[in-house]
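User: Before I run my own analysis I want an independent prediction to cross-check against. Here's the chain; please return only the structure tokens and, at the end, one sentence I can use as a sanity check.
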Amino acid sequence: MKIGASALATLALPPVLAQSAAPVRLALIESMSGPFANTGEAVFRNLLWAVERVNARGGVKLPGGARMLQLDRYDSKGQNEEALSALRAAMDDGARIVLQGNSSATAAALLDAIDKNNERDPARRVLFLNYAAVDPALTNERCSFWHFRFDAHADMRVTALMDVVRNDAALQRVYLIGQDYSFGQSVLRESRRQLAALRPDVKIVGDELHPMGRVKDFSPYASKLMASGAQAVITGNWGNDLTLLVKAAREAGFNGTFYTFYGNALGAPAAIGEAGIGRVIAVADWLPNVQTPQSAAFYKDFRTRFPKPADDYVHMRMQLLIEALAQSIERARSVDAVAVARAMEHADVSLAGQRGRMRAADHQFQQQLVVGVMDRQGTPGVQFDVEGSGYGFRVLRTIAAERAEMPTTCKMQRP
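Assistant: Structure tokens:
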């Protein structure tokens, strides 16, 4: 279940400091094998880089001495039962901070298990830090004191995309497609709602869900897309489900727009190629071509650490997550789960010009969002390409945190 060695950075620190206390163990539970292994590896690289940065400055400062952060990998194999088994193994190994995100269904299963564990076994309470599971329910009706989400949830991301859709005057026909689980369902549901409110003139000519991670040939879906006469696709697909979808659409001759959550990396730009210029739109918390010197330096540092083109997928929110954790441990002056959670409810962190704060009411991180469009590297606003593809994303919209924020129905129960 546990994969390889820990990711405790090897540092040139004085021996007394480096060995003053046991490390704070972080358990990453993700798909490290199977159809979504590339997404798990991308997450690991981001979190590793963030952990290395904290450790390079001496770790987290506590009354008993500085402690390093240690990141361990546990393979969920893309299955909820495997994820729950990984959770038990991580806890047995001494981890009290769990990180996961690639699948809202897995996040919900882990959260249920953590809630039950923390109620019956106070001595082994666990915190759950979520960087990508964006089903809105996780910080609404299913909110938990033990869970903190650092990504914008699906409704927030749909709202950001609709800021572009509403101004696309030529758009009259749209196709909705998504993965058939809680997240994919929520994307389509909110897209229907917002289209009806903002662009009632737009006709939805396709609306379907497909099995997650099991479709190897998307050509039948591409055929239906072409037959529908759609001018645009709205999808929350991620990983291979997105890459294979855009490949099939390109091969079928689709030349419309893709409004995506994750079309900015993991093979999608290379898969769609020249046909994507001006037509693939993605929403994110940050993009490499955010036009500030701080942002450019941050991205260049990541590419220096991970120079292979295939490793080029950096997430600002995962860096902010680790910064928020380090800040919260130091403010709590403890690694006790309750104390760290109470401190994290008020986390406020900045890195490379990007600021985020935790909302205590529901544990939903609040940060600016950006919407970008695919273009050739070297065109105005596209200094950096993606994965060596020659294509990058030019920022179209920047949505301030105050505008991206949405109300919550959470009724938080605190210990």
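Sanity check: The first strand starts at residue 2 and ends at 3.
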